[in-house]
Hints:
Helices cover 48% and strands 16% of the residues. It contains 9 helices and 7 strands. Bound molecules: NADPH dihydro-nicotinamide-adenine-dinucleotide phosphate. NADPH dihydro-nicotinamide-adenine-dinucleotide phosphate (NDP) binds next to α1, β2 and α7.
Amino acid sequence: MELKDKLALVTGGGRGIGKAISSELARQGAKVFLAGTRLEVAEDTAKIIRDQGGDAHAIRMDVSNSEEIQEVFQTLSKEHKAVDILVNNAGITRDGLMMRMKEEDWDEVIRVNLKGTFLCGQLAMKQMIKQKSGSIVNISSVVGLSGNFGQANYTASKAGMIGLTKTMAREVAARGITVNAIAPGFIETEMTDKLDDQIKKDLLEKIPLTRFGTPEEVAYGVSFLVSERAKYITGQVININGGMLM
Ligand code: NDP
């Protein structure tokens, strides 16, 4: 129960990697708020966590809507407490070759993945600076480091998150706040289910540990980074990718 009395906000906490992160933080004793655009999905997950003895709550929050985000942060601090842990996990893909990529697909991915991280990070930092503690974990991606065919928008957003993580870390380090990124490799979730079998087969051949990762394996990294044991780690990118990129 290392995270007892801590309030955690996990964007995209309702499913996939965010669901595993929310469950793991709750298992460590945190009061967890799962945010997403589909309240019913987050609510189902929150209920599962509560049934397992955790303290979890669903909230509707679109990370690309600054007014909605402000309302959520205000409500949390008024009705509960300041955010101690923020996990910027919400993310989308709109894949297509750069030559044919529509401007709106570029804008949407940057708005959700990168601007959403900035907006939530900014409000969390304000609360954390006041209490002189807190930790933020941004879920980037291996392809933010390597680039990837057909993902100009997504890779730019994930690489942007790495630069943003390092700037955030520098700006708040003196206040005892840590900011890190995790760059997962190929993790089995709805996001990767939609890839075709040949792409999955090719990817598998590039993974030294010879399998795809699980959402839980990313969640363990997050729970370490927000724990007391990781207080001297900031501005880092932790690769959880089965050795796909070394
Ligand atoms: P999923 O597609 O399974 O889940 C995405 C989550 O993001 C959902 O909970 C969704 O909730 C939420 N979300 C999407 N748009 C918004 C929005 N505008 N506002 C708030 N929440 C939103 O993805 P994964 O679990 O696979 O991925 C989670 C993160 O990990 C993403 O950032 C992804 O880029 C990253 N990642 C994933 C990898 C993988 O192999 N799966 C590899 C590397 C990185 P809702 O539908 O309710 O809005």
